[in-house]
Write a structure and sequence with these properties.
By secondary structure, the protein is mainly alpha-helical. The protein contains 9 helices and no strands. Helix 4 packs parallel to helix 7 and helix 6 crosses helix 7. This is TetR/AcrR family transcriptional regulator. Keywords: DNA-binding. One of its GO terms (molecular function) is DNA binding.
């Protein structure tokens, strides 16, 4: 196995272990065993668990960004009707609640780990800064106040990913409500 394949295998097995055992089940020894490599080989690629988890977080964040960009690239609003469709599609992408998906589970576990790991917390904050800047560029295509809209949407979407099934409105009603709010921005 070459160096790149080894690193990819380590990240994927860490993700699988997070899904199976949660953050409390993550140890460097378990990951090494799952990858059929020695602990010293694992530590050659990732000197400690924090660095490995930062890599896992970056991997997931990149996948999320790629998914959003892919889903939105077909939409380039040219008029008010298309602008409304664009906003609705953006909201549908951002407001996902799926407590069974691998992505949702791993993100929750990474956030939990980041509460005890300053490097991981810093890495996640950097990700959200970059993520918000990308969203600002996406929203700027249709609205003059993208910073305000993104400042509303990002925390709402993150919270929705955790408690979406618990709020009194359905997902469609929530999207309608947010569409109205966004339409009022200049």
């Amino acid at each position: 196995m070459n160096k790149l394949n080894t690193k990819e295998t380590i990240v994927k097995e860490t993700i699988n272990l997070l899904k199976e055992e949660g953050s409390s089940g993550i140890t460097m020894r378990k990951i090494a065993a799952r990858c059929s490599i020695t602990l010293s080989n694992l530590q050659y690629h990732y000197p400690d668990k924090s660095i490995l988890l930062q890599t896992v977080a970056q991997y997931f964040c990149k996948k999320c960004e790629e998914n959003i960009e892919e889903e939105l690239k077909a939409l380039t609003p040219k008029n008010k009707t298309e602008e409304k469709q664009f906003i609705k599609k953006l909201l549908e992408i951002l407001l996902k609640y799926d407590d069974t998906s691998l992505e949702s589970f791993v993100f929750r576990e990474i956030w939990a780990l980041s509460m005890r790991d300053e490097q991981l917390k810093s890495s996640l904050q950097k990700y959200y800064e970059d993520y918000n800047n990308k969203l600002i560029n996406i929203v700027a295509v249709i609205k003059n106040s993208p910073e305000e809209i993104v400042s509303l949407l990002t925390p709402y979407a993150e919270g929705y990913s955790i408690i979406g099934k618990s709020i009194p409105l359905t997902k469609n009603k929530t999207i309608e409500m947010l569409e109205k709010i966004i339409q009022n921005f200049e």
